[in-house]
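Sample intake sheet
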Amino acid sequence: MEFFDLLGTQLTDPFRIALLIGLLVTANNTAAHTGHLIPVALGVLFIAVLIPSAFGAGPAGFAATVAAGIAANLIILAICWVALTLYRRATAPR
């Protein structure tokens, strides 16, 4: 399986998307105590390793699946972060 096929598959994985939304919500709720960068970075890596470990890496192999998972996680997280920022700006008192 090519890298971009694997990436496309992981970008549409609803379990991955739900975990990343939960990571973003949790990171925002605890940012005052833990900061943003380290918890989010560790969460992205954790999710990238968790899914192929739990459900199998498939024919692409574990390392390729984790690498594509990190890329997919960063893309999904960036989209969610932009959506959250736009929501906050739209609902902020003027």
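Comment: Residues 24 and 81 are 8 Å apart (CA to CA). The chain has one domain: 3-91.
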